[in-house]
Amino acid sequence: MKRQMYFLYALMMCLIPAAVSYAAVDENAAYVKVKNTKLRSSPQLFAPVLSDLKYGDKLTTLETSGSWYKAIDSRGRQGYVHTSAITDREVVLQASNRDFSTAADTSDVVLAGKGFNKEVEKEYAAANANLDFKAVNEMEKYKVTDSELRSFVKSGKLNAEG
Fold first, then answer.
1. pLDDT tens-digit profile of 86-101?
2. Are 50 and 41 in contact (CB under 8 A)?
3. Cβ distance 51 to 40 under 8 Å?
4. Tens digits of per-residue pLDDT, 96-125?
């Protein structure tokens, strides 16, 4: 009888941590699935930015407001992020067993996840040798601030909400 009690006790000691860790899974966790996005003060495209978020950043979602999630970032800042920028699946970047001379940056990872990588780009460029990508490369370097974007929308009398 004592032997059965010890066995039962040992079994319980093994199962309790597993049950606790299963219960601790964060059902409200969300992860940034785009190269970068913003945590904003209100659920509007041009609301002030509270935080810059990048691919793989973890958020805790609180509620939805239209096509926006109210969320908290890893530094405790609370704001809104558009639903198109996040996923409930954890984003994990794993190294392979191959040796690479340079690490991929987040833009490479995002594009590769969509089926586009350096090899595909090289093949496309080789098949279309007459195309000049210099202008595209220059445009990718150009950054527009939120205030410049708001000014553009206002001066053009554009509908900011689409």
1. 999 887 665 544 444 4
2. yes
3. no
4. 444 444 445 555 555 555 566 778 778 888
- Counting Cβ atoms within 10 Å, is residue 35 exposed (0-12), middle (13-18) or buried (19+)? middle
Nearest to 117 by CA among 125, 47, 62, 32: 125
Give me the amino acid identity at 122: K
In this structure, how many other beta carbons lie within 10 angstroms of the beta carbon of residue 82?
16
In the chain, domain spans: 29-87, 106-155
| CATH code of the domain made up of 29-87 | 2.30.30.40
For 23-66, how does the pLDDT look when each residue is reduced to its tens digit (9 = 90+)? Answer: 445 688 999 999 899 999 999 888 899 999 999 999 999 999 89
Give the helix ranges, DSSP H, for the chain. Answer: 2-23, 106-113, 118-127, 134-141, 146-155
